[in-house]
Amino acid sequence: MTDAAPSEGTPPGSPRPSAPELRAADADRERVAEILRDALAEGRLDMEEFEERLEATYKARTYGELTPITRDLPTAPGAAPAVNMVKEPAGQGSWAGRVTGGEGSSSWAVAILSGFQRKGRWTVPKRFNCFAFWGGGEIDLREASFADREVEINCVAIMGGVNVIVPPGVEVVVRGIGVMGGFDHREEGVPGDLGGPRVIVTGFAFWGGVGVERKLTRAERQALKEERRRQKLDRKESMRELHESFRDDVQDAHRRLMDGHHDLMRGRSDRHRDRRDRHRDRHDRRDRRDRGDGYDD
């Protein structure tokens, strides 16, 4: 394997670190943890082995320490188990790419006769504290990254309110206390995605409230709207094709009915013509017979 390039401050002649000696990121440890969870679900590992390997995963500091953990486990059907030694961006929508570790970009917020917002791209710390007195706040986690797999949002609302917005796939636990106020428990108990973060909402509400709601991002709502619009167009096209097919069937049935009616009328006309010819023949024979009798007299 190609050795890593020396850093700018490495003295000449110092040994360069190989790839297994490179420091692993939190996202790398999360990818290994995902493989272990899949192996546990598939029965490749028992619970004791899973716990031992998971503990070793979160303690690992280098790629060389991570690699042996999944050496005997498949990362995909038919694929050899391995840890990628090259740092690559996590795929879009991957929770491993959004659990970044480190410190949060904002750890507290206060609203006194006013309001606050935390939304867009920001990093949620392991514990976020907020206070609202005769005011309101919004904590939007839909596009946020997370400093840890489990984060706590501590809300104190006194004659005010705080609204926490989480995206689908996030597990929510509500442990707040309300006195003449309350905490919203509607999103509690909804299972999260595998590898997704866990958000614990705690705090105290007096004559106030802390709400928790689950929403899609604007881009996801737009994509869902486009998908529904496409499905609606597909249904309209299917109904149009069905209507045309039904119309063709009705026209064909009407045509066959009219053809049958014409055949019936032609048959009746032919029978009427035959009866008329027979009647004329009988009348002619009767006239000839009567004329023959008059000559004899």
Describe the 3D structure:
By secondary structure, this protein is α/β, with parallel strands linked by helices. It has 3 domains: 19-70, no CATH class; 108-215, no CATH class; 218-297. The chain has 4 helices and 13 strands. The protein has helices at residues 26-41, 47-59, 63-66, 218-296, and strands spanning 108-112, 115-118, 123-124, 127-133, 136-140, 145-146, 150-158, 161-166, 171-174, 177-179, 182-183, 198-206, 209-214. Strands 1, 4, 7, 9, 10 and 12 form a 6-stranded parallel β-sheet that branches. It has a 5-stranded parallel β-sheet with strand order 2-5-8-13-11, with no helix packed on it. Strands 3-6 form a two-stranded parallel ribbon. Helix 1 runs antiparallel to helix 2 (47-59). The longest helix is centred in the last third of the chain and has 79 residues, at 218-296. The radius of gyration is 41 Å and the shape is elongated. The N and C termini lie far apart (139 Å). The model is unreliable at 1-18, 76-82 and 85-92 (pLDDT under 50).
